[in-house]
């Protein structure tokens, strides 16, 4: 029996000398490229899923089913590489959160984060976010923890709070601490923008729970390298936009060039689309097909 991805993620988390670096992926190509680049974990960005699967900005429009479907595809490209997936608010009340947890477990997701925004949420870096009460947030965490227990899973539950913007640092840390006491495994303070905030979350959870940091370039996120994050005590760092930003910029440029010049020949010497097929498993698929054909003939 192969080791479940959640168990692998737990093993990584149990070693505080390691930092888990998870690039944000949102579709088959970005996930394949991140796997081919050798990352030991992936992060399924909800913002990226919303934009790539639905064509809309991250305003809580993606449903649980759409999120789970994307997470399942990504998690099953290489089951030995754990995928941490965005589960937003859990998509409803307690029973919805339980269903989300069960669905993510069945999909092969290794870990997921649950936050305290209202169901019609916004990307964590936008203004005007609204929160549910601490009690309602903790009910979400309890529902996930209880479901995990009933399904005998070890999926990693990451508590995220978006409270920094409206309630401030101390109340945000209190919310995360209560979530960890309720059985969440990891603390994720969303939209950190200063060194003090990053230091404070690491200090509060030192020896109690691993800390996750969301490093989104271009927003107001406090900028750290992987090495600096590790020195602060961060154990998971996710780069939600690392694939989104270059794909947005490069594709926009290529389309502009086609529109203006009527030509795509500047890419002709690059060896694509063949290289892209190779990046997405062409050789393995052809080899498999041949193996079966040979086995029928013999
Ligand atoms: C982490 C995040 O939830 C995501 O969906 O990747 C987003 C990131 C983004 O919008 O770039 C967030 O809310 O921070």
TrEMBL record:
GO molecular function terms attached to this record: methylisocitrate lyase activity
Originating organism: Talaromyces pinophilus (Penicillium pinophilum)
Catalytic activity of the protein: (2S,3R)-3-hydroxybutane-1,2,3-tricarboxylate = pyruvate + succinate
Name of the protein in question: Isocitrate lyase/malate synthase
Keyword field: Lyase
SUPFAM superfamilies noted in UniProt: Phosphoenolpyruvate/pyruvate domain
InterPro entries linked to this entry: ICL/PEPM (IPR039556), Isocitrate_lyase_ph_CS (IPR018523), Pyrv/PenolPyrv_kinase-like_dom (IPR015813), Pyrv_kinase-like_dom_sf (IPR040442)
Xref: Pfam families: PEP_mutase
């Amino acid at each position: 029996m192969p080791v479940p991805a959640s168990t692998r993620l737990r093993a990584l988390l149990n070693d505080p000398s390691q930092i888990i670096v998870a690039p944000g992926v949102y579709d088959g190509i970005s996930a394949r490229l991140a796997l081919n680049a050798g990352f030991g974990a992936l992060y399924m960005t909800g913002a990226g899923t919303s934009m790539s699967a639905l064509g809309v900005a991250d305003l809580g429009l993606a449903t649980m089913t759409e999120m789970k479907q994307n997470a399942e595809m990504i998690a099953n490209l290489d089951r030995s590489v754990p995928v941490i997936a965005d589960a937003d608010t859990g998509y409803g009340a307690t029973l919805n959160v339980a269903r989300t947890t069960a669905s993510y477990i069945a999909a092969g997701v290794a870990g997921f984060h649950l936050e305290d925004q209202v169901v019609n949420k916004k990307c964590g870096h936008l203004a005007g976010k609204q929160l549910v009460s601490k009690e309602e947030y903790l009910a979400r965490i309890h529902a996930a923890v209880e479901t995990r227990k009933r399904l005998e899973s070890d999926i990693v539950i990451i508590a995220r709070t978006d409270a920094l913007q409206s309630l401030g640092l101390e109340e945000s840390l209190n919310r995360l601490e209560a979530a960890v006491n309720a059985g969440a495994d990891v603390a994720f303070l969303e939209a950190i923008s200063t060194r003090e905030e990053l230091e404070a979350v690491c200090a509060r959870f030192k020896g109690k729970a691993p800390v996750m940091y969301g490093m989104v370039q271009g927003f107001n996120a406090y900028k750290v390298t992987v090495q600096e994050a590790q020195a602060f005590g961060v154990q998971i760092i996710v780069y939600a936009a690392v694939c989104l930003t270059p794909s947005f910029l490069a594709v926009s440029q290529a389309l502009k060039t086609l529109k203006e010049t009527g030509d795509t020949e500047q890419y002709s010497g690059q060896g694509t689309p063949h290289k892209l097929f190779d990046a997405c498993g062409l050789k393995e698929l052809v080899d498999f097909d041949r193996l079966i054909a040979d086995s029928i003939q013999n």
